[in-house]
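Hi all, long-time lurker, first post. I run a small reading group and we've been trying to get comfortable going from sequence to structure in the token notation. Rather than ask abstract questions, I figured I'd post a concrete chain and ask someone more experienced to write out its structure so we can walk through it together at our next meeting. Sequence below, copied exactly:
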Amino acid sequence: AAMGGSQSKRLEVASKTGVLALKEEGLTLVPEKVFTIRTLRTLDLSGNKLIKLPPQVGVLAQLTVLVVDRNRLKALPDEISKAEKLETISANNNQLTCLPNSIGSLSRLKKLTVSYNEMTQLPPMLCQCTNLQLLDLTHNALSSLPSPGFERLTGLVDVRLGYNQLTSLPSGLGSLCRLKDLDLRGNANLVGIPEDLLRDSTLQHIQVDASLLGIDGMLAEMPGRDAYLQRRKARIDKELHGKAGGGDVNFGT
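-- Answer (accepted) --
Happy to help. Here is the structure in token form:
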């Protein structure tokens, strides 16, 4: 892709700062010169017309943050796993049908946000990303989570699974010892929530459709519910205590 003067100036600056943002530029290809900046730590290509991310992204050995939101990507390249320092991948609002299996070797990955895509399943290898803290899969077409495997993602704090086609969650999720927030709204055929997830995990805030709520607007009677409600109450008490001086409290379900 040819580069204008301002773009090449920005690349020059990026080689010093380690940060490059080429947003809303109508790009259909990533400019080749981007991959000559081996010191790049943050690359933001959001709001373009990219159909593919070239395999050269793997040469960016210092890259920690990659943002490719609002493009036309159907896949991420296998070579993304060579950018071993990646901590954040944000690829919301694309046309991804899957994630590369190689993503499992990104041992430092903390945030993976891939909402508003077309994924029907997750690669089992994703379950090797045990440092993952935020996983946003909202508005995809997932019918299940990798099982066995998903229970190994013990770093998870915030999991967003809203608006998929999940009918059940795998067992073993009681091992999620850092989990705080789980969004399951918009999965119309979800029949229930595993007892061990409610009883044994650290979950404090779950969001579900009305079909899984009781008449009081709280989570319906189901095995493990009472242990969850105790943790939820403790969190709300703590938030109320912290916000005695005013401010919003988000109760949720």
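A couple of things your group might point at:
The helical segments are 5-17, 195-200, 225-242.
The chain has a mean pLDDT of 93.
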